Amino acid sequence: MKLKIYTGAEVRELRRKLRLNQLEFWTPFQTTQSGGSRYESGREIPNPVQVLLNIAFGTDAKAAAIFDELRAHGRPKRKAKTTNAEAK
């Protein structure tokens, strides 16, 4: 799945449209105000934060696809059980 990669300028514009200060905007993303400020100023936004931004500001279908992919990674394939004869 292809995620939208948000730039600092795009995130700053989203935040301003929502009329939120940096603390209000970045707290739900587990990011400090100063960290958010650095991202908005051009520092690269890390992948985990990019995923959260896609969930928060993407479509419902995009969020569902992200959750499905994360669930698939969280469920490792089970190994077939071996019998006692096979183990020897």
TrEMBL record:
Superkingdom assignment: Bacteria
Molecular function via GO: DNA binding
Domain RsaL-like HTH as annotated: residue spans: 12-55
InterPro entries documented for this protein: HTH_RsaL-like (IPR055172), Lambda_DNA-bd_dom_sf (IPR010982)
UniProt-listed Pfam families: HTH_92
The protein's name in its UniProt record: Transcriptional regulator
Phylogenetic classification of the source organism: Bacteria, Pseudomonadati, Pseudomonadota, Betaproteobacteria, Rhodocyclales
